[in-house]
Amino acid sequence: MSEPSHHEPQPVAPPVPAQAGLAGLVACEYCDAIYQRAELAQGERALCLRCGGQLYRDSSRAYARLLPLVIAALILFMVSNAYPIVEMDLKGVRTETTLWGAVQALYADNMTLVAVLVFATTILFPLSEMLMMLYLLVPMARHRMPPGFERIVRGIQQTRPWGMIEVFMIGVLVTLVKLSTMAQVLPGVALWSFAALVIVLAAMLSFNPRDLWQHLDEEPPR
């Protein structure tokens, strides 16, 4: 094992012995070197001997608060999409609508591609990741392995690039810009809920879904 520094602990992972099995192995995503996973102290991270890239880091503290964060994000997401966030002028009639209503307005205004993009980045992908995380974390909290664990973790990894905070914010901004001629933002419940959702999502997305494998292995058998 390596020596942790006082400022930023960075232990270097030991190479994998020739006789080691597949359990507990980790591959460097930058140079494909294989290592035996070592237990880390709180706040430490393991680095690749070959290229210096980060292999993994201690995620025990993040995992402990992950389920409450996912539940909070789902509640805020529902509130954000249940209350009107923009006021639109449609043929002289002022009407308040939700983000989903704004997506429908974009589609009705012959901006189909933009409407699909906004729907995917602000509703579909964030909601999909939250539901998949909830599906995994609830059984894991009861020390059970969820059915289809491997497929769901891979699904989270595949959708995460589209569910990042930057993409989420761009989707909301595109909606407001495209509707700027006939809509204005309502500073109400939905807007404040969206602001809180961004903060909660940032904390939730800081957790690497690959670390779920480690915490699943740590769960005691039924």
TrEMBL record:
Keyword Transmembrane helix: yes
Cross-referenced Pfam families: PqiA
Transmembrane intervals: 66-86, 113-138, 189-207
Domain of life assignment: Bacteria
InterPro entries tied to this protein: PqiA-like
Keywords: Membrane, Transmembrane, Transmembrane helix
Protein name (record): Paraquat-inducible protein A
Organism: Cupriavidus basilensis OR16
